[in-house]
Design a protein that fits this description.
By secondary structure, the protein is mostly helical. It is built from eleven helices and two strands, in the order H-H-H-H-E-E-H-H-H-H-H-H-H. Strand 1 and strand 2 form a beta hairpin. It is globular and about 55 Å long.
Length: about 260
């Protein structure tokens, strides 16, 4: 059942987020967190996100703007190492608090607390128009790359920040999509290289079927998105994502998942 749910969510999300440049990791990380520990959930999300982006590069990669890729991508890669390293270090920290509720014991760990709080922030970003209208000038690309890469490495969520910085970089629609995809792929590759030290411990090899199913679903969604969706109104989706992120972040903060 978990394979079916995750694959279905991945397919629908990949369709809706093909042109926006973000959303797949934002939604998938909390979905995986419902079934796996948070570090495994972020790693699984990274694998699906990376393979989906590789496929999207094959579709649109030739339109990549190399100047923007250099200025935004290099800081993103370097910062992604830092974010992923911090995530791995937090996994070894002792529990902050344990408590019992309705006969069940719950544990609040540093990584769940921090990731939960960050997801709460991203849920606000998803829903508030005033925040979504914030755009950054081209001279802020280096800062944007560092922020996007760091949070990508730490939480698996990088697209919203990347879009906010790239949308004012003077790119055509095709170049915007292509450049964002290449940058996301580089960040994914970077953080996965750090996560790899924990892959065996997290038993990711036991979830090969799930990874293949979710990846194929993402590819199918990307194909359908490219073919059918020229314009998509994201407001309803953003509201749903925000509510979902809020629920998952609350569950993480209180140790319920």
């Amino acid at each position: 059942m978990d394979i079916l749910i995750i694959s279905l969510v991945t397919f629908i999300t990949a369709i809706l987020t093909f042109f926006s440049g973000f959303g797949l990791g934002t939604i998938l990380a909390p979905v995986f967190a419902l079934f796996f520990p948070i570090d495994v959930a972020i790693a699984l999300t990274g694998v699906v996100h990376f393979t989906n982006n590789l496929f999207k590069i094959a579709l649109v990669g030739r339109k990549t703007n190399m100047q923007v890729l250099w200025r935004f991508g290099v800081p993103a890669i370097l910062a992604a190492f830092g974010g992923a390293w911090l995530l791995m270090e937090m996994m070894d920290l002792p529990s902050l608090f344990q408590y019992t509720l309705f006969g069940n014991e719950y544990d609040i760990s540093p990584v769940k607390l921090i990731i939960g709080l960050l997801l709460m922030v991203f849920s606000v970003i998803e829903v508030l128009p005033s925040i979504q209208r914030i755009r950054f000038a081209k001279d802020k690309l280096i800062i944007g790359g560092a922020l996007s890469g760091f949070f990508g490495g730490l939480t698996g969520i990088q697209g919203a920040l990347r879009t906010a910085f790239l949308v004012r970089s003077g790119l055509s629609k095709e170049a915007f999509i292509a450049t964002g995809v290449v940058i996301a792929c580089l960040v994914d590759l970077t953080r996965l290289s750090v996560y790899a030290s924990r892959f065996s411990a997290a038993h990711l090899h036991e979830n090969t079927t799930l990874l293949i199913s979710a990846t194929l679903a993402a590819i199918g969604g990307a194909l359908l998105g490219k073919k059918l969706l020229k314009k998509v109104t994201m407001r309803t989706i953003q509201l749903l994502v925000s509510v979902f992120l809020t629920l998952i972040s609350t569950a993480l903060i209180f140790g319920w998942v």
